[in-house]
Amino acid sequence: MTEPNRVSPFPAPDHQPVAGGIAARARAAASGGARYLAGLNPEQREAVETLDGPVLVLAGAGTGKTRVLTTRIAHILSQGRARPSEILSVTFTNKAAREMKTRLAEMLGQAVEGMPWLGTFHSISGRILRSHAELVQLKSNFTVLDVDDQIRLLKQLLQAENVDDKRWPARMLAGLIDGWKNRGLAPSQVPSGEAAVFANGKGGKLYASYQERLKILNAADFGDLLLESIRLFRENPDVLRQYQSRFKFILVDEYQDTNVAQYLWLRLLSQAPSSAGASLQGSPRQSITSEEDGSPGLDPARRPGDDDRSIAASGAPPKNICCVGDDDQSIYGWRGAEVDNILRFEHDFPGARVIRLERNYRSTGHILAAASHLITHNEGRLGKTLHTEDVEGEKVTVTGAWDSEEEARGIGEEIEELQRKGEHLNDVAILVRASYQMREFEDRFVTLGLPYRVIGGPRFYERAEIRDALAYLRVINSPADDLAFERIVNVPKRGLGDATVQLLHDHARKRRIPLFEAARAVVETDELKPKARGSLRGLLLQFERWRAQREVTPHTELAEIVLDESGYTEMWQKDRSADAAGRLDNLKELVRSMEEFENLHGFLEHISLVMDREGAADEEAVSLMTLHSAKGLEFDNVFLPGWEEGLFPSQRTLDEQGRAGLEEERRLAHVGLTRARRRAKIYFATNRRIHGTWTTTIPSRFLDELPAASVEITESKGGSGWGGAGGYGPSRFDNVESFGSSYSTPGWQRAQARRPGAARGSSEGGFSEQQSPFAGRDPFGGNFGRNKRGPMTIEGELVAKSTGTVSEFTVGDRVFHQKFGYGRVIKIDGNKLTIAFDKAGEKHVVDSFVQRA
Q1: What DSSP letter does each residue of 449-490 carry, written as one string?
Q2: Residues 6+ apart with CB under 8 A from 420
Q3: pLDDT band per the 50, 70, 90 thresholds, residue 379
Q4: Largest Cα–Cα separation, the chain
Q5: 3-class SS at 507?
Q6: H/E segment holding residue 87
Q7: Among 594, 595, 681, which residue's Cα sits nearest to residue 643?
Q8: Alpha-carbon distance 308 to 98, whole Å?
Q9: Angle made by CA atoms 649, 651, 656, in degrees to the nearest 5
Q10: Are 825 and 815 spatial neighbours (Cβ–Cβ below 8 Å)?
Q11: Is 60 annotated for ligand binding?
Q12: What SS3 class is residue 368?
């Protein structure tokens, strides 16, 4: 352990109080002999007392990271090493900053005043920018635009450039610009290949125009707060030196979640004042380089890890910077976070002290053993092993279910059993990989009467996209539902704005009729402009057609048709925001949830009961959230459903990011396990509906990466009528021969070894990631397929299913479609036509929706 008053290898400036001096000793005595150090373990105390030079604190889950960070600040202040205004302490959330101030006040026995530089990256950058706004062509009272204002401004620019905003949505451009800013790229630094992906090569020009327009409006967006601060520092060495001299200590929380722009911002501030000024002279885009060896330095166009970026090349010692983080909990790569920032800390800051906090104060031994063994399969990590001095506790359980419904039933049974044993619902959490998984649990909990809360987002049926879809179905079911009709009359955009809706309301009130009837009357008059009148008439005709189809079409297929023909699915397909894919998944899950109801009316009645279930804020409730939302939280009992290939790890992530994506998914699994204090229970389903199609799934590769000594295979408590636990007779898993196949993974072999009469001595081999152990087999001799239906159609405007009837059209016929316009039939499959439309491209439609031209 490092002594608190050890001699620093980095000499302190003359004006800085030296640890161990009279003033420092008097201050320490006044603080009661550093009471705040009591209770720290040796590693924590070393992290607190090592004040000089660069320090990286690798803090595993539950090892007291926040306590170390706040105690370190208290120690700096108590020892007189710096004034509160000379400490830069950066967090990721305002909540974390407030919590840190509160803890400091408790430690020092007084309110911590005068710490203006304790806050988030963006709040601190905003404060710096307002003090020097004119140097970046802004005024000190500049406005920070929210997302809606940003989208509106981009739409204006697209219109000015004659860019089709339907093909190239403003939201997609906003996402690209945000990504560039997260990487510290100004318009002139965006690679030409990336700029060309939008609007046939106009992306870079639009980005430049957007930045120019922001200056005219005296505005900045969220990304500009960091980007413009970096530019301010690089173009004005005297300003940079001012802040470098001011901050004697820099502390950074959650360093593994920093993106490139945040990294560049920190690197500039963490240099010694003398070297930074010299290296930043000249061009504002000049890199910080070494005069001795010419090694590349800090260039915003580069990504971390692309080159040698060592500060040591400047010839000056680094500042007293302490970064706290956990490379095993870097799970926000999709938001631009670079785990490489923390992996390269020792390279960026030569001579850095790395202190590992490995004693966990949260979880039991078996949970930590499982999490630690799993994460060792990652190559991109600095390495540490969590341990506890407490009891081993219960083993992590792995349970297989037949399908997702049985999975939800089984977890519901286990939660009720925990309740009977005296466990509080507030100590129970279900962590899912994808938000659409929540729907099954929500419905199950409503049936059981179990209160629950969704953390990090609304309940499934309260999500915006679900409410929109339900609104369409409600209007079909009841044309007098004014609230539903008003919600979707202009969703997606049809040119029916507030003025049109107000006109409909006025007409409805005068005649005392519903909005739908008022719309019918208004389209027959000249009160609306021709374009709006045509859009409204088209929507009314669509509803009439959907209402007629309701009598002859299954309600699940009707929902698919409505979402496709209304353009609602297409709207989210064109949306390039981070959550668009999740919204599409939720829509597919909504359609799937309708299958268990006899008709549309019964489904909507069920939804009203679910939506009505609102518990008091202080009521005991099960917490339901995604794994990403769970970071930083902890519960006694954690359920982890959906551990299957394709779902977890996510196939989308693997396809887009390869090995890097797999390692981030494994870190996500590590985070999920370490949220549990006493019990961690993993579930996987043998069959799951993925994108509307029943799929036989393979258990996640992560299961075989768990240590056998810390894992117990259990049987699902949610058995269905096929036979199973919970009063339904023997479990179908007792007779594995009925599957016609068995797993060859070590996890499955361990499961078989525990079953009565199971065959022994089978070889333990790995399974192919592409081949399901049940591929081509029907586990129940054909019974499973009796409720099976074709793929869902939430993939395009309309993917119709052939009824087997012969179409009256022939290939080459010229036809007209009310939405897509004129086109020519190029292929026929029963009553399903493939049509090449003149303007809309190639579409698949049912022949009843077109007419000869």
Answers
A1: T--EEESSS--GGGSHHHHHHHHHHHHHH-TT-HHHHHHHTT
A2: none
A3: very high
A4: 99
A5: helix
A6: strand 87-91
A7: 681
A8: 37
A9: 110
A10: yes
A11: yes
A12: helix
Give the phi and the psi of residue 433 in degrees, each rounded to 5: -80, -35
The SS3 assignment for 327 reads helix
Residue 818 confidence (pLDDT): 75
Measured between alpha carbons, how far is 265 from 269 in angstroms, rounded to an integer? 7
Tokens 């190029």 appear where? 826
In the prediction, which pLDDT does 663 show? 95
Active-site positions read: 65-66, 253-254, 329, 675
Q: Kindly write down the DSSP assignment for every residue of 65-86, as one continuous string.
A: HHHHHHHHHHHHHHTTSS-GGG
853 is in an annotated binding site: no
CA 396 to the chain's CA centroid: 26
Q: Do the annotations mark residue 661 as ligand-binding? A: no
Answer whether residue 456 shows pLDDT above 90. Answer: no
699 vs 704: CA distance, rounded Å: 9
- The radius of gyration of the chain's CA atoms, rounded to the nearest angstrom, is 31
Nearest to 425 by CA among 128, 635, 158, 129: 635
Q: Phi and psi for 249 in degrees, rounded to 5?
A: -135, 135
Residue with tokens 């088209």: 538
**Residue bearing the bigger pLDDT, 606 or 199:** 199
155 is in an annotated binding site: no
Cα–Cα separations (whole angstroms), residue 452 to 177, 178, 409, 625: 38, 35, 15, 10
Q: What pLDDT is stored for residue 98 in this prediction?
A: 81
Q: Report the predicted TM-score, pTM, of the whole model to 2 decimal places.
A: 0.66
Give the residue from 468, 470, 461 showing the smallest Cα distance to 435.
461
What span, in angstroms and rounded, lies between the C-alpha atoms of 360 and 580?
Answer: 37
Among 14, 9, 19, smallest CA distance to 80 is for 19
User: Measured in Å, how far apart are the chain's first and last C-alpha atoms?
Assistant: 86
